[in-house]
């Protein structure tokens, strides 16, 4: 069962996701989805999104998928490694859907994969990441200080 307390703390503290205007949905334990509409603030050129926006979308998706598992033990996660393959350009007005799934979960390390599609179902990026699980109180003690 997903620990809603950890997810609630994550949602409340994730200022980056709010800045990018990403919409989160937890699909099930070990799976998460983020959706983002590419706006002018996301652009690197007059028509194309910055790769960092796509990487941020993916990192968030992978991380929340991992969090749905790590959170069961009152843990949060941090990115240890992120591999992104950009397959197609992302343009102004595109609506991207990133779906991440935990492939392997140990006590401390979780391996997660994701795909990103646009509104036409075209795969625009693939990614994988490794995440470190650690006690939630460590992350949220930093916020209190």
Q: What structural category arises from helix and sheet content?
A: alpha+beta
**What is the number of E strands?**
6
Number of domains: 1
Gap between N and C termini: 31 Å
Order of helices and strands: HHEEHEEEEH
Instruction: List the uncertain runs.
Output: none
The CATH topology name reads Thiol Ester Dehydrase, Chain A
Number of helices: 4
Shape, per Cα inertia axes: globular
Helix content: 25-40%
Largest sheet report: 6 strands, antiparallel
> What Rg, in angstroms, do the CA atoms define?
15 Å
What would CATH call the homologous superfamily?
Answer: Hotdog Thioesterase
Can you put this structure into words, describing what you see?
- There is one protein chain.
- A six-stranded antiparallel beta sheet has the order 1-2-4-5-6-3.
- It is 31% helix and 40% strand.
- The mean pLDDT is 93.
- It has one domain: Roll (Thiol Ester Dehydrase, Chain A), CATH 3.10.129.10.
- The N and C termini lie far apart (31 Å).
- With 145 residues, the chain is of the alpha+beta class.
- It comes from Brumimicrobium oceani.
- Belongs to the thioesterase PaaI family.
- This is PaaI family thioesterase.
- Residues 49-125 form the Thioesterase domain.
Write a short abstract of this structure.
This protein has 145 residues and is an alpha+beta fold. It has four helices and six strands; from the N terminus they run ααββαββββα. The mean pLDDT is 93.
């Amino acid at each position: 069962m997903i620990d809603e307390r950890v997810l609630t703390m994550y949602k409340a503290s994730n200022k980056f996701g709010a800045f990018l205007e990403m919409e989160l949905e937890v699909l099930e334990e070990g799976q998460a989805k983020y959706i983002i509409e590419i706006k002018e603030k996301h652009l690197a050129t007059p028509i194309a999104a910055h790769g960092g926006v796509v990487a941020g979308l993916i990192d968030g998706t992978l991380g929340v998928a991992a969090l749905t598992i790590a959170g069961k033990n009152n843990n949060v996660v941090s990115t240890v490694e992120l591999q992104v393959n950009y397959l197609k350009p992302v343009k102004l007005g595109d609506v991207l859907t990133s779906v991440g799934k935990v492939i392997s979960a140990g006590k401390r390390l979780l391996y997660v994969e994701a795909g990103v599609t646009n509104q036409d179902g075209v795969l625009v990026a693939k990614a994988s990441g490794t995440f470190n699980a650690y006690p939630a109180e460590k992350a949220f003690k930093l916020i209190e200080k």
